[in-house]
């Protein structure tokens, strides 16, 4: 079993630091199912390649309690593809040999952890249940350039046809830890088998390695089910935890201006009302609510006859179910129901179902996306869906010091991946507008503090 990772980053041998494996040394390690060898066939300034070679002990394997082949055919336990085909053994070996890189730590050069490297990956024999199409379905949405070379079952007997194995080559520019996490999850999911009994621990492993990218993957369900060996209860638990972003209460402000107290409306309601005001001013009739959650904004939109077509989209299936219930979908009048559509989908992929709307809004959503995925969001919305108006709101990080219950340096919500200052939001928004041919203006949302601004901020893009 063979995995090679190359980088062409200048000062390429720095890969050794990141992996915690010195390029000049050949290192081996005993694992329960054989040996893992790590070495560098090439370690030069302009290109560095590390190889992880697994030597699987087929005899030890046949004796193990969890031998998946013991019931197959008599020789099956000795003669099978496990020593050669990339499988969950490779994931285990990645975790054992490149553990710190996989977990995103690097003592010597911590700044390297987040740095995107130009990377090329070769896996000699990828076992792909579902074939080439499935391998592409798994890797391409993550931005990889994928090359697959089929292999004959036996070169001497071409009539026997293709084997289920491929030589896989991947190219992408991304942090090494992200690559390792993708491989850790996707290889066994493609193989659709596991060399050990799986339990709740496996859900934790999947969440730890997949939390940042799996929820937005179009094949999240299949990958999760396969990774968890089709154990229904585990898969369901994992899917729920991957997809669900519980909407939490906002922390309360220590110094709230009087009018906000008097009006007694929550900041969140205020955001929704402000957004509706902007949509009306823009004359939008068809509106897309991106990351609609449990449907609070959808309810407001439905109450206003100007909005004749309303589409809510969320990655969390459970939130959509809640939205349906709260909006009384089942008992809604047919006329009302016709105006509303709920879609299960991700904001970071092109989705033709969201094309053709006058306006799109995303209220307190972008901060739930990983910063490196913002570019994918930008393209999916501004380049492909391309509504006339786009309204985004996000917390203003400067205001956080005024929240009594929020300790310094923490975010308002455990799932927030970042919180921006007004300057940061403006810089990003202006970049998007310039790249995508929109105008943009910014407005505060909520009571403004002289020094720190308002608790939330809004950008209104139009073209
Ligand atoms: N807009 C709603 C909910 C905000 S919470 C409101 O104003 O109340 C953020 C929402 O974004 C959650 O419902 C979460 O499931 C959704 N979300 C997070 N990442 C997403 C993604 N990549 N694609 C689609 N929805 C996403």
Which helices and strands appear, and what pairs or packs with what?
Elements: E1 2-7, H1 15-19, E2 27-31, E3 34-43, E4 48-56, H2 58-63, H3 88-97, H4 99-102, E5 117-127, H5 131-139, E6 145-152, E7 162-174, H6 176-191, H7 200-210, H8 220-227, H9 232-243, H10 258-263, H11 267-281, E8 286-290, H12 296-302, E9 309-314, H13 317-326, H14 334-339, E10 340-344, E11 359-363, H15 374-385, E12 389-395, H16 422-436, E13 439-445, E14 456-462
- List the ligand species: S-adenosyl-L-homocysteine
As laid out across the biggest beta sheet, the strand order is 2-3-4-1-5-7-6
Oligomer kind? single chain
Overall pLDDT, averaged? 86
How much helical structure, as a percent, in the residues?
Answer: 25-40%
- The CATH superfamily of the largest domain turns out to be Vaccinia Virus protein VP39
- Give the radius of gyration: 25 Å
- Would you count the extended β strands for me? 14
Could you give the order of the helices and strands?
Answer: EHEEEHHHEHEEHHHHHHEHEHHEEHEHEE
CATH architecture of the largest domain: 3-Layer(aba) Sandwich
Beta-strand share of residues: 15-25%
How many distinct folded domains? Answer: 2
Poorly predicted tracts of residues? 68-73, 244-249, 254-264
State the secondary-structure class: alpha/beta
Distance between the termini: 53 Å
Largest sheet: 7 strands, antiparallel
How many DSSP helices? 16
Question: What name does CATH use for the topology of the largest domain?
Answer: Rossmann fold
């Amino acid at each position: 079993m063979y995995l090679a990772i190359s980088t062409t980053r200048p000062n390429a041998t720095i890969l050794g630091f990141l992996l915690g494996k010195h390029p000049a040394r050949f290192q081996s390690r005993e694992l329960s199912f054989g040996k893992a060898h790590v070495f560098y066939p090439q370690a030069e300034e302009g290109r560095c390649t590390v190889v992880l070679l697994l030597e699987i002990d087929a005899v030890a394997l046949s004796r193990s309690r969890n031998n998946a082949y013991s019931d197959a055919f008599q020789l099956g336990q000795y003669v099978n593809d496990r020593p050669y085909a990339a499988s969950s053994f490779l994931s285990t070996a990645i975790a054992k040999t490149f553990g710190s890189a996989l977990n995103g730590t690097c003592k010597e050069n911590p700044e390297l952890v987040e740095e995107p490297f130009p990377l090329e990956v070769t896996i000699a024999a990828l076992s792909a249940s579902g074939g080439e199409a499935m391998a592409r379905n798994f890797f391409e949405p993550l931005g990889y350039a994928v090359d697959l070379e089929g292999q004959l079952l036996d070169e001497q007997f071409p009539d026997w046809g293709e084997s289920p194995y491929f030589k896989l080559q991947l190219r992408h520019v991304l942090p090494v830890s992200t690559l390792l996490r993708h491989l850790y999850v996707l290889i066994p999911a493609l193989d659709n088998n596991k060399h050990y009994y799986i339990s709740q621990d496996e859900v934790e492993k999947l969440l730890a390695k997949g939390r940042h990218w799996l929820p937005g993957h179009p094949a999240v369900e299949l990958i999760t089910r396969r990774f968890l060996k089709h154990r229904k209860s585990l898969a369901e638990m994992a899917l729920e935890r991957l997809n669900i972003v519980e909407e939490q209460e906002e922390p309360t402000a220590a110094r709230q201006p009087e009018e906000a107290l008097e009006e007694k409306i929550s900041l969140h309601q205020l955001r929704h009302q402000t957004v509706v005001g902007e949509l009306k001013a823009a004359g939008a009739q068809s509106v897309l609510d991106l990351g609609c959650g449990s449907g609070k904004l959808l309810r407001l939109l439905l109450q206003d006859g100007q909005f004749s077509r309303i589409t809510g989209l969320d990655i969390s299936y459970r939130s959509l179910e809640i939205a349906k219930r709260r909006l009384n979908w089942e008992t809604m009048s047919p006329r009302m129901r016709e105006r509303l559509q709920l879609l299960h989908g991700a904001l970071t992929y092109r989705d033709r179902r969201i094309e053709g709307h006058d306006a799109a809004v995303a209220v307190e959503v972008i901060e739930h996306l990983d910063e490196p995925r913002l570019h994918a969001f930008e393209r999916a919305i501004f380049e492909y869906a391309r509504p006339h108006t786009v309204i985004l709101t996000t917390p203003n990080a400067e205001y956080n010091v005024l929240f009594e219950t929020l300790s310094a340096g923490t975010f308002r919500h455990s799932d927030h991946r970042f919180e921006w200052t007004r300057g940061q939001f403006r810089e990003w928004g202006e970049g998007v507008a310039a790249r995508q041919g929109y105008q943009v203006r910014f407005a505060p949302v909520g009571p403004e503090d002289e020094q720190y601004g308002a608790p939330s901020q809004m950008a209104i893009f139009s073209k």
